[in-house]
Design goal:
Layout: H1 2-10, H2 14-31, H3 63-86, H4 90-111
């Protein structure tokens, strides 16, 4: 997805850039370690020192995990398209639909060409 983002930025495709940034952020959030797994605060003298000393390793997502995150992003975009259409914002709905199609294209690359539905 990072390469697709770079390509979209070079092409100045605002909808693709927006969709890909959103998807990359969603994947990064999914990789975050739940806060309850982090040690609690203690005395300052026992605190980890130095840049990154207290950072927790991120979870590594498998292909199925990334697919689930992307599917959730597509579903969220589709809900937004329906809502924007209902409230009379067709221009904005068109942009969100275009973003959803970008994410569907990414999913097609993850799933293979025949398993992802097309159209919003």
């Amino acid at each position: 997805m990072a390469a697709a983002l770079t390509d979209a930025m070079r092409a100045r495709d605002r909808d693709a850039v927006s969709a890909l940034r959103s998807a990359l952020a969603a994947v990064a959030n999914a990789e975050a370690v739940p806060i309850h797994t982090m040690p609690g605060a203690g005395a300052a003298e026992s605190a980890a020192l130095g840049v990154g000393a207290a950072d927790a390793p991120r979870r590594e997502l498998g292909e199925d995990d990334v697919r689930s995150v992307l599917e959730a992003e597509v579903a969220e975009h589709d809900r937004a398209v329906r809502h924007l259409t209902e409230v009379g914002r067709p221009d904005h709905a068109r942009r969100v639909r275009a973003q959803s199609e970008v994410l569907r294209g990414i999913l097609a690359g993850v799933d293979g060409p025949t398993t992802t539905p097309s159209g919003a």
